[in-house]
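Appendix C. Worked example: Flagellar protein FliS
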Amino acid sequence: MNQTGQNPYLRTKILTASPHELRLLLFDGAIRFCNQAKKAIDEKDFDTSYHSIMKAEKIILELSSSLNHDVNPDVTEKMVALYNYMYRRLIDANMSRDLETIDEVIKLLQYERETWQMLVNKVQSGAKPAAAPKQAMGGYGQMTSAQQTAISSYSHSA
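Step 2, the predicted output written as structure tokens:
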């Protein structure tokens, strides 16, 4: 059974998370999978490292695709370029098994997570954010791709 099946609290947390909180969960998942890949490479478990990097790549694609291009197109395009860069670096890391490349992506993800956390804090304090992701819920009973990705990242973690 997967982790969210064993932990209904976690599934509820993901399904009820605001778009801002959901994005933080996605950053956490990508960072966790990158760290799992590094550990697997150290242990010469290349199958696990490959799959961990693939999961991080999937999350980065979700982070990029969930950006709202209507709010601030210039900033959004720069964010898309950054996510594309991280994605390409992870492809490189998967081919070369280079820990420094994974570390580079982890640092970028951590910086983005910290920045996003500051935005969440602003939103919670009542200040209007400069840019926000698309609305997370598609409607009652529907799960968005971001929620599915977040659940998947917690379901398949080692």
